[in-house]
Prior knowledge:
The protein is α/β, with parallel strands linked by helices. The termini are far apart. The radius of gyration is 21 Å and the shape is globular. The longest helix is centred in the first third of the chain and has 18 residues. The chain has nine helices and eight strands. An eight-stranded mixed beta sheet has the order 3-2-1-4-5-7-6-8, with helices on both faces.
Amino acid sequence: xxxxxxxxxxxxxxxxxxxxxxxxxxxxxxxxxxxxxxxxxxxxxxxxxxxxxxxxxxxxxxxxxxxxxxxxxxxxxxxxxxxxxxxxxxxxxxxxxxxxxxxxxxxxxxxxxxxxxxxxxxxxxxxxxxxxxxxxxxxxxxxxxxxxxxxxxxxxxxxxxxxxxxxxxxxxxxxxxxxxxxxxxxxxxxxxxxxxxxxxxxxxxxxxxxxxxxxxxxxxxxxxxxxxxxxxxxxxxxxxxxxxxxxxxxxxxxxxxxxxxxxxxxxxxxxxxxxx
Length: 276
């Protein structure tokens, strides 16, 4: 198999065909990883102890994560775009209800129906344009906005995912914020190449402190966001877009490229009021 990321090889409903779905579900290492990540997602949900909840499993696949929810006495409904994956889930006789669904088309449930949602290794697929009509930002916004509506007012949604780069994280968190969520990133074992895991923690209603990341004694591996959040790029030393530093850097890049560039003045980057 190619070393490329799976989401760059084919759309999920094509990539996870019968062969790939069986291979994924029968791989003992994949099962172990899936169980560990689902248990961590449940921990980050912060549900009341010993109280069964109704949860969404977004990108449920063959029901590996759903089995963890069952073991913790929760009821669940799973959505996935791969029919082959859902067929295996049926063969495994999972207890959750299964729906064939493209998450980019939204969440088809009534308002406030769920106590929480988990998603393991699925979110990054929505960042791709698998068809000419697909606009990742619009699909993510529709997904997050309908998910927000379907959750109760104290619920959380936890997404374990594999971001390709900072821009992809910015894309996801921006659309989640526009949909009304509070929250941020929790990065477990940030200094480990193999154990490092990204969890997007989304909160409904109001913002609360993010859970402590694993594998670190400080809170530097949690990146919060609100509607007025500090952007991911700014946290990594880059000036925010349209700021004076950003404009000066852009001018300097143009000069290095030999492009005609206006000289700086006292009016550079000054905000215009738009009135005369």
